[in-house]
Design goal:
Blueprint: E1 7-16, E2 22-31, E3 37-45, E4 53-62, E5 66-76, H1 77-82, H2 89-96, E6 114-120, H3 121-131, E7 137-147, E8 150-161
Antiparallel strand pairs: 1-8, 2-3, 3-6, 4-5, 4-7, 7-8
Length: 162
């Protein structure tokens, strides 16, 4: 069998773009020990219920600045979560990276705060080694979250594949 890649989180940036609509209670990476590292974030929805959500996700690779790599797609999150089993394989893959560790496991409306809790690096390592292998390098996962067609939050996760 071939060699395995290892993902290491390097940074996370959560930026509220409309603080009357949503705010980040927390957004961080935590290294418990050499093998257990995770990310967590909590978005407080200040105007719920939220019934219309889109997300734009882009994978970026660092090559003299971050440049688009593989995909940049915008999806209706309400439709995706409402019919997850029938989703396009790429969207299913991307959402499978974080949905098992979040409360975003249902369709709209969203009445509660959005939480991604203790997403372990091991989960991402499994996804990038066995599901969709990636070349070594520095990457960023950019996501822009739209409610009612207005960009409300920007979340960027930076990581290295070695």
């Amino acid at each position: 069998m071939g060699s395995f890649s290892t993902i290491t989180f390097t940074n996370i940036k959560c930026t509220p773009l409309d603080e009357e609509f949503a705010s980040f209670e927390y957004c961080y990476l935590k290294s418990v020990n050499r093998t257990y590292k995770y990310m967590s974030l909590k978005v407080n929805l200040l105007k719920s219920p939220v019934t219309k959500v889109k997300v734009n996700v882009a994978l970026m690779q660092r090559l003299s600045g971050y440049k688009p790599f593989l995909y940049n797609v915008t999806v209706d999150a309400c439709k995706l979560l409402g019919n997850y089993k029938a989703a396009n394989p790429l969207l299913k893959y991307l959402s499978g990276l974080f949905i098992p560790f979040s409360n975003m496991n249902h369709s709209c409306p969203f009445n509660d705060n959005i939480i991604v809790e203790k997403l372990p690096i091991d989960h991402l390592n499994t996804q990038t080694n066995f599901v969709l292998p990636f070349p070594k390098g520095d990457y960023a996962f950019y996501s822009n979250w739209f409610a009612y067609d207005i960009n409300r939050a920007d979340v960027r996760v930076y990581y290295t594949i070695s």
